[in-house]
Amino acid sequence: MSSFYNFLSWVIGYKKSVEYFVSQLPFPENSPIKVLDAGCGTGLYAFAVLNKFKNAKIVAFDLNDKIVSSLKSKVAKNNLTGQIQVFTANIEGSLSKIENEKFDLIITSGVLVYVPHEKTVKNLSRFLIPGGYFFNSPNKDSAWGRFICKLYACKPYTKAENISVFEKNGFTLAKDIKVPKIPAASFKEAYIFKKDF
């Protein structure tokens, strides 16, 4: 399943859009950033971040045991266990495995459309350092985005709703990223928020 998803992501241009989104992150390339990839799926973002930021340390988790197991194998196969830690967890839960950790960046992509939006942002934001960044790439509230959400039983939020939820949790919109026509994946959009305190 993971291999098929990764192949499909490449075919439809989503993998390229992930690389583009990561290129917009506000860190120097040699920065030793600590990243939390929440709801990591097959690890597209984790690997894209590591490709761009060679000194990054990434903690990634997902609810699906099979996907996590597959990602762990991929991490081990690529000798990246020192840079990517993977575990199974519920994004709505206590996340006790990382309870005492703080991150420079949190990434969520296509996951907040499945969970209580504001509550989940609040739960995750406690893991950010003051002045840290929260990258969120939700499904667009467009015909294509709503179609994808209908297929996968999720709920797209409007741009105003997305921004409002983060502002209520102490964030300021730092960057509204527009996807160029190439790469594709027009069902996605992306925002970078900065934690105010």
Strand composition percent: 15-25%
CATH superfamily: Vaccinia Virus protein VP39
Arithmetic mean pLDDT: 88
The end-to-end distance, rounded to whole angstroms, is 40 Å
Q: Based on helices, strands and strand pairing, what is the structural class?
A: alpha/beta
Q: List low-confidence stretches.
A: 4-12
CATH class: Alpha Beta
Strands side by side in the biggest sheet: 3-2-1-4-5-7-6
Number of strands: 7
Describe this structure in words.
The protein is of the alpha/beta class. It has a single domain, classed as Rossmann fold, CATH 3.40.50.150. Helix content is 36%, strand content 23%. The protein has helices at 2-11, 14-23, 44-52, 65-77, 117-125, 143-152, 159-168; strands at 34-38, 57-62, 84-88, 103-109, 128-137, 171-177, 190-195. It has a 7-stranded mixed beta sheet, with helices on both faces. α5 packs across α7 (159-168). The longest helix has 13 residues, at 65-77. It starts with a helix and ends with a strand.
Topology overview:
Blueprint: H1 2-11, H2 14-23, E1 34-38, H3 44-52, E2 57-62, H4 65-77, E3 84-88, E4 103-109, H5 117-125, E5 128-137, H6 143-152, H7 159-168, E6 171-177, E7 190-195
Parallel strand pairs: 1-2, 1-4, 2-3, 4-5
Antiparallel strand pairs: 5-7, 6-7
Give short descriptive properties of this protein.
Rossmann fold, alpha/beta, seven-stranded mixed beta sheet, globular, 197 residues
